[in-house]
Design goal:
The complex is a heterodimer of chains A (272) and B (289).
Chain A lengths: L6 H29 L16 H7 L2 H34 L5 H9 L6 H14 L6 H26 L2 H9 L4 H29 L3 H6 L6 H8 L6 H36 L3
Helix pairs in contact in A: 1-11, 2-11, 3-6, 3-8, 3-10, 6-8, 7-8, 8-11
Chain B lengths: L9 H27 L15 H8 L1 H34 L5 H9 L6 H12 L4 H8 L16 H25 L3 H9 L4 H29 L3 H7 L6 H10 L5 H21 L13
Classes of the chains: A mainly alpha (272), B mainly alpha (289).
C-alpha cells in the first residue's frame, strides 16, 4: 500500500494535473491557431490558412526596431547583472564579514519591491539628476531587478563546489584572482549561463519598470502594450507572440537540459 | 619586490553590487520619501517639510478603499492558486511518478514565456468578439446581440489572468517543501495504524506549511502592486491601487507628492510583510537538484 496516495487518489490527481496543463497551454495553442487564421479579427469560425500575418510582422520596421532595442537592453543589463551577481555570490558564500544578513537582504530585496514603486522611484531619481530617459535608464533599472535572480542561481552552485579545490590552488601559490579564473569559474560556468539566460529573458520581457523610464524609446514590451490597444494590429501581434513564445520555451528547455548534462560531466570529474 | 596585484578582497567583491543598489534603489526610494514629505516637489512650489500628504492620504476614502480592493483581490487570487497548486505539487512529489522533473518543467515552462503575451492570449479569448463569445455565437448557444460581456474588462478577468500567470510559479515552493518530506514518517504513521487522511493532516500538512506560506506570499506580494494586467483586462471595475499610482505619475495632471505617498505606503506594507514572514522566504535551492 502506498502511504501517500490511494489508487483512486493518484488517479484523481493525475487527471487534475492533466486538466491544469490543458488550462496552461490552451491559450498558447489558441494563439498558435489564430496566427494562421485568414481574418482581421480572431473569431470563430476559422476562415482559412494564411502566412500573411507572419509576413506582415517580418516586414514591419517598427516592430523589428523594438525587438532590436529590447535585445540590446537585455544583453547589456544581463551581462552587468551577471558580473555583479558573481562578485556578490562569492562574497556571500566564501567570505566572512560583519553585517552579512543585512547585505544579503539588500541584495535580494529587488525580488519583493513592487515594480510600480521601483519604477516611480527611478523616474524621480532620473528627474532629480536630469538624466534623459531612454535605453540606458531602462538598462540601469533592469540590472537592479535581475541581480537577485543571478545571485540565487550562482550561489547554490558555489556552495556545492568543494572549497579544498580552491585552497589547493592558494597553497600552490595562486592568487585569489588566478584561483577564480582557473578553478572556480569553469566549475560555476553552467550556473553563470543559466543566470545570464534568466536575466536576459526577464529584461527582454520587462514592461512595468520600463514603462516609467523608457522615455521615447520603444522596447518590445512597450511596443506590444501599445499594439494591444489597436485591434487592427492584433493578428500580427499574435504571430509575433507565437514566435517569441516558441523561442523562449525552446531556450528554457534546452538550457535546463544542457545545464544538467554539463554538471553531471563535471560531477564525474570532481573527486568524490 | 612584488607589484601589488589586483585581488578579490571582500570590499572588492561587494563594492560594486552594493554601490549599484544604493545608487539605483535606496537613493531613489529616499527621493520618493522626500517628495512624500514635500521636501522635493514638482514645479516651483516652496519646499518645506510637511505631513500634509500623508494626512490627506490616511483620511482619503478613495485611495484607502482602492488599497483594500487590491488587498482583497490579491488575497483571493493567492488563496485560490495556492489551493490549486498544492495537489499538483503533491502529485509530483509524492505519487512516485518517474517523470516528475519533466512534468515539473512542463508546469513551469509557461511562466518563463512572455508575461504580456500571455495577457494578450486571454484578451483574444475573453473579448466580446473573442474566442469564447464567437464560439458561442457560431454554435448558436448565444445570439451575437448578447455576448457574455462580463468576461473581459472586469475584476473577474483580472483575477483569472493573474491566477493563470502565477499558478506555475506557485507550484515550485510547495513542490520543494513536499519533496524534502521524509516518506519514512508517513510509513511509520501507517505502521502505527494511522489512516492516510490522518497522516496527511498530522504530518504532511504541517511539514508543507512553510512552503504553502512562501507560495502564498510569492503571489500576494507582487499582485498587491500590480498595474499591468488590470490596465489591459480590468476596465473600470478592475482598476487597482497600482493603477492609481501610475496615473498620479503619468497623466496630464501629475501629482508626484500624492503618488509618492501612495508608493511609499505600499512599500511599507510589503516591507512589513516580508519582515514578519522572512523565515518562510529564505531563498532555497530549487533550480538545481
Amino acid at each position: 500500500m502506498d502511504v501517500a496516495l490511494s489508487r483512486t487518489g493518484a488517479w484523481i490527481l493525475r487527471a487534475f494535473f492533466a486538466l491544469v496543463v490543458v488550462f496552461l497551454y490552451a491559450p498558447i495553442v489558441i494563439l498558435l491557431i489564430f496566427s494562421f487564421n485568414d481574418s482581421e479579427i480572431p473569431t470563430f469560425p476559422l476562415s482559412g490558412f494564411t502566412l500573411h500575418w507572419y509576413y506582415e510582422f517580418i516586414t514591419n520596421g517598427d516592430l523589428r526596431n523594438a525587438l532590436e532595442t529590447s535585445a540590446e537592453v537585455a544583453a547589456l543589463s544581463s551581462v552587468v547583472a551577471v558580473a555583479l551577481g558573481i562578485l556578490a555570490s562569492i562574497a556571500l558564500v566564501r567570505r566572512r564579514f560583519r553585517g552579512k544578513a543585512p547585505v544579503s537582504a539588500l541584495l535580494l530585496s529587488p525580488l519583493v519591491i513592487p515594480l510600480v514603486v521601483f519604477g516611480t522611484s527611478l523616474l524621480l531619481l532620473f528627474h532629480a539628476i536630469s538624466l534623459d530617459l531612454g535605453v540606458m535608464t531602462v538598462v540601469i533599472g533592469h540590472i537592479v531587478i535581475t541581480l537577485p535572480y543571478t545571485i540565487l542561481v550562482i550561489m547554490p552552485r558555489l556552495q556545492q563546489i568543494d572549497v579544498s579545490l580552491e585552497e589547493a590552488a592558494y597553497d600552490l601559490g595562486a592568487s585569489r584572482l588566478r584561483t577564480f579564473r582557473s578553478i572556480t569559474l569553469p566549475l560555476i560556468l553552467p550556473a553563470i549561463l543559466s543566470a545570464f539566460l534568466i536575466a536576459f529573458t526577464t529584461s527582454f520581457d520587462e514592461y512595468a519598470v520600463a514603462s516609467f523610464v523608457v522615455g521615447s524609446s520603444v522596447t518590445f514590451p512597450i511596443y506590444l502594450y501599445s499594439a494591444l490597444r489597436f485591434p487592427n494590429q492584433l493578428p500580427q501581434v499574435i504571430a509575433v507572440a507565437v514566435v517569441v513564445i516558441t523561442i523562449s520555451l525552446a531556450v528554457v528547455v534546452a538550457a535546463e537540459v544542457g545545464r544538467r548534462v554539463y554538471e553531471r560531466r563535471l560531477g564525474e570529474l570532481e573527486p568524490s | 619586490m612584488d607589484r601589488p596585484r589586483p585581488d578579490l578582497t571582500t570590499p572588492g567583491l561587494l563594492g560594486l553590487p552594493l554601490a549599484w543598489l544604493v545608487a539605483f534603489l535606496l537613493v531613489p526610494i529616499g527621493i520618493v520619501a522626500a517628495y512624500s514629505f514635500n521636501v522635493l516637489a514638482l514645479g516651483e512650489v516652496p519646499h518645506s517639510f510637511t505631513l500634509q500628504g500623508w494626512s490627506d492620504f490616511l483620511h482619503s476614502s478613495i485611495y484607502l478603499s482602492l488599497f483594500w480592493k487590491s488587498v482583497e483581490l490579491s488575497l483571493i487570487v493567492s488563496g485560490i492558486i495556492v489551493a490549486l497548486a498544492f495537489p499538483l505539487a503533491y502529485y509530483l512529489a509524492l505519487s512516485g511518478t518517474k517523470r516528475k522533473y519533466i512534468l515539473l518543467l512542463l508546469l513551469i515552462a509557461p511562466f518563463l514565456t512572455s508575461y504580456l503575451l500571455r495577457v494578450l492570449a486571454w484578451k483574444v479569448i475573453l473579448g466580446n468578439q473573442g474566442v469564447i463569445n464567437s464560439f458561442l455565437f457560431w454554435t448558436g448557444i448565444r445570439s451575437p446581440d448578447h455576448p457574455v460581456s462580463q468576461l473581459l474588462y472586469s475584476r473577474f478577468a483580472v483575477m483569472l489572468v493573474l491566477g493563470y500567470i502565477w499558478l506555475p510559479f506557485v507550484a515550485l515552493p510547495i513542490f520543494v517543501s513536499l519533496e524534502t518530506l521524509d516518506r519514512r514518517l508517513l510509513e511509520a504513521a501507517s505502521d502505527l495504524g494511522a489512516s492516510r487522511l490522518y497522516a496527511f493532516r498530522r504530518i504532511t500538512l504541517p511539514l508543507a506549511a512553510p512552503g504553502l506560506v512562501a507560495a502564498f506570499l510569492f503571489v500576494f506580494i507582487p499582485t498587491l502592486g500590480e498595474f499591468v494586467t488590470p490596465s489591459l483586462v480590468g476596465g473600470a471595475s478592475g482598476y487597482l491601487y497600482g493603477n492609481q499610482i501610475v496615473d498620479l505619475f503619468h497623466t496630464g495632471f501629475p501629482d508626484w507628492e500624492t503618488g509618492s505617498v501612495l508608493a511609499l505606503f505600499l512599500l511599507g506594507v510589503v516591507a512589513i510583510l516580508t519582515l514578519v514572514f522572512s523565515r518562510f522566504l529564505q531563498p532555497r535551492q530549487v533550480v538545481a537538484d
